[in-house]
Amino acid sequence: MKTKISLIVVVFSFLFTTAQNQNLTQQFDDIVAQYYTDVNAPGATVLVAKNGKAIYRKAVGKSNLELDVDMIPENVFMLASITKQFTAIAILMLEEQGKLSLNDPITKFIPDYPTHGKTITVHHLLNHTSGIKSYTSIGDLRQIARQDKTLDELIDFFKNEPMDFDPGEDYRYNNSGYVLLGKIIEVVSGETYADFIDNHIFQPLGMTASQYGSHSKLIKNRAMPYEEGDKGYVNASYLSMSLPHAAGALTSTIDDMLKWQNALANNTLIKASTLQKAINGSKLNNGEHIDYGYGLGELTLKGSKGYTHSGGIFGTSTNGIYLINEDVYVIGLSNCSCNNIDAVTTQLAAAAIGKPYPSMKDVIQLNEDQLKKWVGAYQFEDGTVRHIFFKDGALKSMRESTTNTVFDIFPLSENRFMFADGNIEYEFSQSDDGKKQAIFITDSKNIGKQIDKAMPEARKEITLSNDILSQYDGKYQLAPNFNVVITVKGNEIFAQATGQEQFPLFAENETTFFAKVAALKVVFNKNASGKVESFTLHQGGQESIAKKIE
Fold it and tell me: What integer pLDDT is reported at residue 496 of this predicted model?
C-alpha cells in the first residue's frame, strides 16, 4: 500500500510540475508575442534559464529579410556592448594571475598615452570614470564607422581629445576606455584581443559559435542586421569591425551566452570574490555609489537583486539579465536596433521569478461609477501630487510637473490599475470615513493621501517641420546601461528608452519637447557650431544630461 501511495504522489507531482512549466511557457510566449507581432519583420532570439539550464528558447521574426529566412535559436548576432563584460572579466583574469593591478596607471602599459597630468588607472577604464572622451561622440559616427583602423590608429583618433572631467570625479559611459582595456590585454598577454578571448574564454567554455566579429568570414547562421527607416526596414549602416573592438565587437548566440553566464555564476574563470568587484557597482572619489561595476551594472527587479548589461549598435539590440538568488538568466539578441529587446528580457525575467508584470490582456471592464470612485488629487510621500480624473469613458492620471502629462490607466480589479506598459500600478483604498488613499507601485511603494486641489491644465504642443526635427535623430546615453533613441518620421518625433516602448514627443518650441506618456521634458543642446550634442532631461524635479553617442 505504501508503494502505491508513493507512486501516486510521484505521478501527481510530475503532472503538477508539467502543468506549471506549461503555464510558464505560455507566459513567456505571450510576452514575446506582445513585442514581436510581425513574423515577416526582423526578429530576435531569447533564452530563459533556471539553475543553469534553459527552460525557454524562442526565435521570432526573420534573420534575413531579403532571402525570407526565419529566425532560429542558433542564429549568431553582434553582442555590441555586452562585449564589455568579456573584456572586464579578461582584465580580472589577468589581475588574478598577478600580471596587472586595477590600480596600475594606464601609462604602465601605454607609456605614450597623454593623461594631461592626471593619474588614470585600469579601474577608471573599467567603470567609465576615467574622464577620457568616448570616441563614439567625436564627429559623425556613421562616417567614422566605415573606416578600417588598426588598434593603435583607433587610439590615436581619440587620445588627444580634452578630458571630460578628472579621473574618478564623475561617471560617463565610455567606449574609448574599453578600447584601451583591449590594448592593455594585448600588451600584458602578448596576444591580440580576439585571440585572448578565443583562447582563454570561448574555447575553454565550449562557446563554439562565438568569435570576434567579421564581415569577410563565412559565419554559419549569421543574422543580418537591419534598421527602420521612414519607409520601412533597411540594411543597417556599415560598421568596420575594427572600430568597436573590445567595447563591442564580439558575436555570439543565446546558447553560448548561457555557457558564459554559467561560467560567471560557477566561478569557472575568476574567483567569487573577484566577481563581486564587477557586479556590485563602484564609487566615485567623493564616495558616491554608481550602479556600474566592471562591465556589468547592478539591477533590482521586482525586489530581486542581480546584474545586467545591454548593447546597441547599428542594426543590433541586445540585453542580458541575471538574478542572483533565484539563479535566473535571461538573454535576448535582436537583429534590428528598432526592437525593444530590453523590455522583453525584463518582463521574461519577472515572469521567471513568479513576479510577472501585468499586461493589457489582464485588463477588466468597470462601469463609470466604479471608475469615478477614485477620482481626486493625491499627495505622495515624496511630495509629488497626482490627479486621477475621468475622461472619454476611462480613468486617467496626471502628475503635476513641468509637463503636466496625462497617462491612461487600466483596471486590473476594482481598486488596482496599471499604466500601459504594466511596469507601474496604482492600488486605491478608502477608509470608513470616506478618505481615499493611492499607493504608487514601481519596484517600491509610494503612498499618497487625498487632498483638496484643483487639477492644472495639460501642456499644449506645436508642429515642427522634418528639417528641424531630423537634427535630433540619434542615440543618447542617459545613465549606465540606459540609452534613449530619438527617431524622426515625417514631422513626428519619437523617443525609446532602454527597456521601454517607443513613445511620441511633442514640441513646445524648436528645442523643447515633452511627452504625454511620461512626466518629462526634453531640451536639446547644441554646440557652438550649431550641432546637437546632447539633451537635458527634466523629470521628477531633477535634470540629467544625455550625451549624443550615435
Answer: 82
169 closest CA partner among 325, 286, 310? 286
Give the mean pLDDT of 174-203: 97
Q: How many residues does the chain have?
A: 550
Rounded to the nearest integer, the mean pLDDT of the chain is 90
Could you tell me the CA-to-CA distances from 550 to 118, 138, 269, 325 in Å, in that order?
Answer: 28, 9, 33, 36
Report the C-alpha gap between 9 and 311 in whole angstroms: 47
pLDDT digits 0-9 by tens, 516-527: 766 678 999 998
Chain segment 6-61, per-residue pLDDT in tens: 554 444 444 444 445 668 999 999 999 989 999 999 999 999 999 999 999 999 99
Cell numbers that stand for 61 in this block: 521574426
Using alpha carbons, select from 183, 210, 318, 321 the residue that is nearest to residue 264.
321
* Separation between Cα atoms, residue 119 and residue 104, nearest integer Å: 9
In what helix (H) or strand (E) does residue 370 lie, and over which residues does it extend? helix 368-372
Residue 472 has pLDDT above 50, yes or no: yes
* Nearest residue to 95 (alpha-carbon basis) of 175, 176, 185: 185
- Here the contacts of 136-144 (C-beta below 8 Å, separation 24 or greater) are 136/175, 136/549, 136/550, 137/533, 137/547, 137/548, 137/549, 141/549, 141/550, 142/237, 142/314, 142/550, 144/243
Question: How far apart are the C-alpha atoms of 41 and 375, rounded to whole Å?
Answer: 42
Q: What is the mean pLDDT of residues 154-176?
A: 94
d(CA 78, CA 336): 11
Please name the residue that has the C-alpha cell 535576448. 332
- Do the Cβ atoms of 277 and 291 come closer than 8 Å? no
Strands (E), 51-157: 53-60, 62-64, 69-70, 77-78
d(CA 259, CA 108): 34
* Interatomic CA distance for residues 7 and 1, integer angstroms: 10
Residue 183 is placed in which grid cell? Answer: 590594448
Given a cut of 80, whether residue 420 has pLDDT beyond it is yes
C-alpha cell at 499: 527597456
For residue 289, pLDDT beyond 80: yes
For 271: left if phi > 0, alpha if psi spans -120 to 50, otherwise beta; the answer is beta
**In sequence order, what are the beta bridge partners of 92?**
none
- Angstrom distance (rounded) from CA 349 to CA 359: 15
